[in-house]
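Please, structure for the following, as tokens.
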Amino acid sequence: MTEELSQRARLVLSAVIANYIATAEPVGSRTISKLTGVSVSPATIRNVMSDLEDLGYLAQPHVSAGRVPTSQGLRFYVDSILEVRELDQQAKAQINQALHERQPLDLREVLQAASRSLSLLSQQAAVVAAPLPEQEVFRHVEFALLQPGLILVVLVTKSGGVQNRIIEADSDLKQDDLDKFTRYLNELLADLTLSEVKERVAREMAREKVRFDRVLSRALRLGQKALPGGGPGDVFVEGQTNLMGAPEFADVARLRLIFRAFEEKSTLLRLLEKSLAAQGVQIFIGAESDLAGLEGLTAVTAAYGGRRAPLGALGVIGPTRMDYSKVIPIVDYTAQLVSRILGSRD
């Protein structure tokens, strides 16, 4: 049905949404008729609004009230009407300063700064998911003998993550042996994700010739022990209290459900993981997120990291009447900047 919308219908829908974003109140035909660029009568606008309601793009909360956009109407607006402008230089400078203010920055500081910047500039809640352990790209591993049979493993990823583990090993291993293992594994596993590293190690261990090479076989067994297990990454959340000022969430019970959803790390991770399968900014309006507690909200998200294998995702969550023209470029630019910062570590 979206193809059937006339230019006039698009104009009215856009005007209703713009006014609703600004006021959080139902919008009447007389309000629309007074806008600059609208040269039709309130009666004509009422007819157009009625048609848009029949199409499912607008709804009338009360018989005597004006109209508000539905999730379907907002989806059409975002996909077919909204013109997203490039982020202004002042906002870019603010994000750059926040993400570069301390050097050297580690991964956690970068992601926390990104979350704070997103929340501050959008005046909504912001979420940033740290890279899933399985998606981190291997840089190098080091083995250090602590005492016979006990080894410290230091695993470094290209995003700057460092994982330390203490593992048990054969008591006859010397530091010279561990140095050989380090050189072999670093050459074998370079530039693979940790998921691919596990597959490579398992594949190499299954090869017949390795069974007859004691050094390589022991190196692979040690490498397999050193690899971290799978599990959820961290999620950084900022600005949930920004939602408290929105009229939509004046109901304390509703707000409590939203805050509970923010406390569930798995819920936020499932939302952000939806962004990893596609490039660019993704927008989930209302029930499109398919997540309990977030049905009445909009999430604007984007993946960061490499195009081939994104490391994680970030985004802004707020009411469905959020200012999309403002939020989308903020999320897009922040994701690009985080990608560049992490890429500069390679």
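The mean pLDDT is 83. The radius of gyration is 26 Å.
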